[in-house]
Amino acid sequence: MQERIQTPLRLRSGTREEVPVTATAISDETVPVAATQHMLKRALFAAATAFLSINLWTGSPVLALWVGSQAADERELSMTPLFVVIVTLAVLTVAISVTLLWLEQRYRLLVGLPTREARLTWLRSFNSQREPVRQVPTSLLERIVTVVVYVAVILLLVWFVFFAGSPMSDYAQYA
Prior knowledge:
There is one protein chain. The protein is mainly α. The chain has a domain of 111 residues. It has five helices and four strands; from the N terminus they run ββββααααα. The longest helix is centred in the middle third of the chain and has 33 residues. About 13% of the residues have low confidence.
């Protein structure tokens, strides 16, 4: 007896078609386990994206400052620790960004969403203006990154307006 199990949509040759799985002896417990594993993978992708997005704003600058402080020999600012901080922050930012792009691509394949076009819409040649533009839906991971950016900018503005204080108050005591 063969049964067909409906699996999540997968990409095959650039189209969205279902990939059937056939099995000879499938118990009723197999389908919920597969669905649970699929949901667990999606949750892990979402958690990794949230973790990396937050660390893009907080963890990588703090780590870069720590690495720069370890490179400093004295208590005065010199160019060597400053250069180390800038290079470390650049490397961490690029690494986290590339990892976020990789996670997004893998998530789209897992869920069955179409992948993004390699070239940007506004970089298309004038000859291809009549070609239809593919409308690609926004994924959960993109929404997570967007929310993290909004929260980070709002918190930065709140800190700047209410908690940073005026830099002129430091100079008023010397006048």
